[in-house]
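Structure in, sequence out. Go:
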């Protein structure tokens, strides 16, 4: 018998959304990727970093990703000492648990939201407590004083798409004895964000990703904004060369091209709002969305039937077998053409 830690032996492991091998033959609306390519500046920066012969790849990248911290800080109005870069925001979520939640200590999050928090907590041997949602999208039964070490708040929520109001997030920050992690993976598609709370409350951490809004899921880039004391702790924990050279080059180029970014996110929001109106005409129940996806339920509330019908037509969406979610599907927002085809397919399926 190999001496696995009991929590590792007992855990199932996270199952990410399906990535079909023949990806080009699908309309892929299942993992909230961006349908548009990254800024053309990204390719230029990567090629420049590679040079003619890739000689720079012999050498380690910047350990601190300092130029990236400065770019993020400038963009959002924070000193670089309030920023840490991550190899995907998943990395920083993991390191937050490692920094704050020891063996047997409690980590909280909302179900439904991002279940990867539970996987990360299980690896650490931390205890997980989930909270449900009320009908008006508040946390059901959240205590006046929440004593868990960390609480993960996904806003905009995935898979449902709604965002919590800033005043409510601030109230939660004051009710958390530990750290409130505001996972803003989709904030670039929303009307607001919680960055100002990092300045007002020492226990608030905001995490972001370049995977969705900057079309860089394949580069693995994310960051967190938090008090310098939190950033310093996270810096002790992370792999010292956590971002490779090409990712660092891509990140700076991408963040600096705000014109391209603004154009892509505006198009996705417009397509989203158009798609919601169209799918409602087919009798679907849709939650107003602040992300680059929608959660929609057909009139017969059989999400799997629609998922299968779309799958047969090479349109991939996300269906969750969880009883809270099985009546609907999460559909990422692609190009207008892809969403036109999706509406046509839904009419056919009936
Ligand atoms: C996509 C996603 C992440 C992970 O982002 P990466 O930067 O790709 O690791 C984190 N949280 C939520 C809620 C997400 O949807």
């Amino acid at each position: 018998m190999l001496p696995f830690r009991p929590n590792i032996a007992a855990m199932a492991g996270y199952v990410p959304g399906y990535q079909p091998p023949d990806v080009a033959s699908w309309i892929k609306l299942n993992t909230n990727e961006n349908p548009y390519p990254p800024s053309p500046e990204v390719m230029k920066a990567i090629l420049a970093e590679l040079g003619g012969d890739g000689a720079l790849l012999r050498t380690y990248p910047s350990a601190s990703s300092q130029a990236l911290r400065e770019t993020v800080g400038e963009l959002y109005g924070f000193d670089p000492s309030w920023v840490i870069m991550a190899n995907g925001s998943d990395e920083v979520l993991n390191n937050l648990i490692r920094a704050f939640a020891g063996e047997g200590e409690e980590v909280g999050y909302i179900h439904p939201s991002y279940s990867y928090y539970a996987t990360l907590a299980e690896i650490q041997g931390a205890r997980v407590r989930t909270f449900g949602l009320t009908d008006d999208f508040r946390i059901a039964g959240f205590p006046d004083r929440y004593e868990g070490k960390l609480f993960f708040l996904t806003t905009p929520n995935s898979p449902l798409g709604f965002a919590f109001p800033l005043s409510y997030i601030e109230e939660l920050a004051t009710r958390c004895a530990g750290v409130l992690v505001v996972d803003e993976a989709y904030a670039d598609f929303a009307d607001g964000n919680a960055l100002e709370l990092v300045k007002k409350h020492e226990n608030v951490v905001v995490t972001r990703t370049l995977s969705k809004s900057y079309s860089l899921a394949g580069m693995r880039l994310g960051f967190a904004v938090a008090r310098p004391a939190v950033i310093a702790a996270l810096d002790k924990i992370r792999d010292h060369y956590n971002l490779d050279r090409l990712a660092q080059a891509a990140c700076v180029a991408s963040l600096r091209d705000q014109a391209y970014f603004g154009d892509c996110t505006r198009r996705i929001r417009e397509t989203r709002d158009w798609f919601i109106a169209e799918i409602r005409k087919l009798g679907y129940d849709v939650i107003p969305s602040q992300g680059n996806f929608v959660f929609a339920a057909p009139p017969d509330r059989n999400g799997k039937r629609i998922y299968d019908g779309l799958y047969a037509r090479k349109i991939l969406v996300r269906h969750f077998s969880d009883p809270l979610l099985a009546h609907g599907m999460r559909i990422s927002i692609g190009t207008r053409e892809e969403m036109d085809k999706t509406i046509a397919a839904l009419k056919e399926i009936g």
